[in-house]
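Quick question, first post here. What does this chain look like in 3D?
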Amino acid sequence: MTEPSTRILLIRHGINDYVKEHRLAGWTPGVYLNAEGQAQAAALAERLGGAALAALYSSPLERARETAAPLAARLGLPVQILDALGETRCGDWTGQAVEELRKTELWLQVQFYPGGFRYPGGESTLEVQTRMVAALDMLCAAHPGQTIAVFSHADPIKLAVAFYAGTPLDLYQRLTVAPASISELEFTSYRPMLVRLNDCAHIQEWDTEDADKR
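> Answer (accepted):
Ran it through. Tokens below.
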């Protein structure tokens, strides 16, 4: 008899002003959804309002928790907070404009050799992937045969998807995860599978320039 699979919906937070201004928010406190982001969160709740979700988990950062809130209210589920689902700790790059960072040699490294990259004063890309995968493995074990939603951030989601899809760490930047998008992983007894990536069907329009900005 085939064992039931566990499914994890990986949902990126909605648009905020840091995303629109192309700045790295990192763990900056007080970064909230703007009006567009709030509309995206409402659309997401409408899209998933009929889903049989067993639990909701979120990064502790406000923009992720705000994105989860409308769906939580609709389903009558609490949003459980896990630090391991948080954004990359960008260190000295926190709050910096992407346009300025693109002028540095380190920017080239994070684009083409992320496996060897560490944010100045912050986390390495490998550390982000490791904590994210450990968290998802834990949640998968806690919810056998169920479907859950996890609200996180662009790079942590892309790094987790890359790991489970067997994509080398140095190629994870080829993946796109737009604000308020849904990506889905299925875990069976013999392998994980990527079911969908960057599903934006509930969002009428989105700017590709915003896709991978935090």
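The radius of gyration is 16 Å.
Strands lie at 6-12, 55-58, 79-81, 147-152, 182-187, 192-199.
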